[in-house]
Design brief:
37% helix; globular; 4 helices; GGDEF domain-containing protein, diguanylate cyclase (C-di-GMP synthetase) or its enzymatically inactive variants; 20% strand
């Protein structure tokens, strides 16, 4: 879960889920970026609801997904609302295991994209790669 030390000083929260949004997510990724020569211990998993399940996308569904994902987090993980039908989890767990755990927590079809946080990628690039992986997974 989020601790006060991990949360940027001013965070805009999503009006429905009360989760931090994309700007805070980028800040957390930047703060957790490893130094040169250090292995990638952290990564991001983007969980996207499949389009057939999100029409119409209502507040009740978003709150259910938020509760399910929050309940599936392990210590040290950080959850944010990434987009209209997507959430992001910053984790120190192996990405495939974290992705599987998060998908298993949902009672509806979803897909994941993932990317490790490395020294040579900034926060925007990490999020772009995870989003591209999500798009590829959704279309498969």
């Amino acid at each position: 879960m989020t601790t006060l030390l991990e949360r940027p000083a001013t965070v805009e929260l999503d009006a429905i889920t009360l989760l931090p949004g994309r700007a805070a997510l980028l800040d957390v990724l930047a703060l957790r970026r490893p130094a040169a020569g250090r292995p990638a211990d952290t990564g991001v998993v983007v969980v996207g609801l499949l389009s057939a399940t999100v029409v119409p996308l209502g507040a009740a569904l978003l709150l259910d997904v938020t509760a399910a994902l929050s309940g599936a987090l392990v210590e040290g993980e950080w959850l944010a609302r990434y987009g209209p039908a997507a959430f992001a989890v910053v984790t120190d767990e192996p990405l495939p295991a974290a992705a599987g755990r998060l998908l298993a927590a949902l009672d509806l079809p979803a897909a994941v994209g993932q990317c490790p946080l490395t020294h040579d990628l900034d926060a925007v690039a990490v999020l772009q790669r995870a989003a591209a992986d999500l798009v590829a997974t959704r279309s498969a």
